[in-house]
Amino acid sequence: MRSELATKEFVRAEINEVKAEISEVRAEINEVRSEIKQNNLLLKVLIGISIFALTIFNPDFVTLIEKIVK
Q1: Measured between alpha carbons, how far is 51 from 57 in angstroms, rounded to an integer?
Q2: How far is 7 from 16, CA to CA, in rounded Å?
Q3: What backbone phi and psi angles, to 5 degrees, belong to 57?
Q4: Does this model's pTM top 0.85?
Q5: C-alpha distance from residue 35 to each of 5, 45, 47 (Å)
Q6: CA gap 29, 23 in Å, rounded
Q7: First to last CA, the chain
Q8: What is each CA distance from 42 to 6, 45, 59, in whole angstroms?
Q9: 61: Cβ–Cβ under 8 A, 6 or more apart, which residues?
Q10: Contact in structure between 55 and 61 (CB atoms under 8 Å)
Q11: pLDDT averaged per 10 residues in sequence order, the chain, 70 residues
Q12: What is the pLDDT of residue 50?
């Protein structure tokens, strides 16, 4: 029975290991969040460019601009 009991040092060492793992996971989560923010910005830019291109190359839009300019 004595060999199955955990000592204070063993428990503290295990707790420290778990805390270290939690810190690593938190760092990875922060990296993923920053990547998501960057991808979100790129997606918004691509959507903006797509809308701009569709508007500029729309024949009806071109005729409207021609009427406004004349």
Answers
A1: 10
A2: 14
A3: -90, 5
A4: no
A5: 45, 15, 18
A6: 10
A7: 97
A8: 52, 5, 28
A9: 55
A10: yes
A11: 75 95 98 98 96 90 87
A12: 94
**Contacts for 56 with CB less than 8 Å, ≥ 6 apart:** 62
The pLDDT of residue 29 is: 98
Q: DSSP letter at 57?
A: T
DSSP 17-39: HHHHHHHHHHHHHHHHHHHHHHH
Query: Token match 């071109």: residue?
Result: 62
- Cα–Cα–Cα angle for 64, 50, 40, nearest 5°? 140
The Cα–Cα gap between 9 and 16 comes to: 10
- The whole-number pLDDT of residue 3 equals 66
Q: Which one-letter amino acid corresponds to residue 53?
A: A
